[in-house]
Amino acid sequence: MIPAAFDYESPASVDEALAVIAGAGDREVKVLAGGQSLIPVLRLRMNAPDLVVDLGRIAELRGVRDDGDAIAIGAMTTHDDVTREPLIRQHALLLSLAAQTVADPQVRHRGTFGGSLAHADPAADMPAPALALGAEFVIAGPSGRRTVGASDFFTDLFTTAIGEGELLVEVRVPKHTGWGAHYEKFNHVAHTWSIVGVAAAVRVEGGTIAEAKVGLTNMGLVPIRATAVEQALVGQPATADAIRAAAQNADQGTNPMSDASADEDYRRHLAKVLTGRAVLAAVG
Amino acid sequence: MGTRRISVTVDGVAYSDDVEPRTLLVHYLRERLGKTGTVVGCDTSNCGACTVHLDGRSVKSCSVLAVQVDGSDVTTIEGLAQNGELHPVQQAFHENHGLQCGYCTPGMIMQSVDLLKDNPDPSDEEIREGLEGNLCRCTGYQNIVKSVKAAAKAGSVSAGVAGGAA
Hints:
The complex is a heterodimer. Chain A is of the alpha+beta class.
């Protein structure tokens, strides 16, 4: 299928991109990152924007840098780069492991970290790990840049704190050096969306869980932090029995939907089982 | 809603064309350049039949706009053979009957080349994971995996010979 016709701009800088968007007036604008969600949507004519603004030529949006107590990931860094980047593997292993599970290799070569977060699909794999690690989202707009915390970024189904005329430019992820991590994903067949996914990062000290961070994919309209599990884990021995017991809290505060893949009760069950597996794998 | 001029190298040949922004890379390859070796299998980004290499990495050409590849280098299934010699992965698919109807084959081969570049000696499981974005509706996966294994083996042998000769 062929998308409806649109105008196309490929600015070379963030400032230029913001100016193009600001100058679009009443025309509907879509921002193109890696295009692995947007282009299929355009092709199916589920959306027909007047103007597509492609961020692919903006070099400053790509790459990962050490930013003191955090690592800063450019919004246009691909999933494939997130899986390979040594800085991410060292300081935010959870992101690297989750990115490896996104779709398939071809999609990971094009799809971007920032694009996935901005798209905010409830079944996408990167939002829950970003939430769990307490990422901060740097958003550029006509009046400068602002930073939004993870708990305020994902606001609703396919909706984030990024406003009209704004762009997500960078994601700062606090360093979790030395933490164990795992992303446990359940889907029916290869390269399909997560029915439920669990992102876990754990710091173990002398056989005891000192800190734990757990994020849930597709257990509501937005990614959810499993705070009841985190609290239940801290101070527990890093054993299978203790972890499985804590994981029984995984569906607290969630609001999973029923759809063709799974009904609500099944998702609640999956969240508990997968949380146990994820945390157990994370403690190694 | 006009057109844009793109310059792109495809299978070693430089092209310059005016395209509508909505033109998908796969349609540009097939309909403008006549490179019908790259096929459209599903129209939903699932099947991987349209896989090509964009600046050296595999992509689904149904999920890339032609305007996005301005200034880039694209390799299709038609650019793999050199001087009349099949690429080792093509040869391995031929020898191991790594196809049934053949429709998924261009994408399977392009993705297998990408996979082997990353991992020259993959296990069966790594091959299956590496090809997870490519569907064979005939379900002929067994011989596809066998073909990739054979190509990996042939690759290491020829690399060994080349190394020995040098």
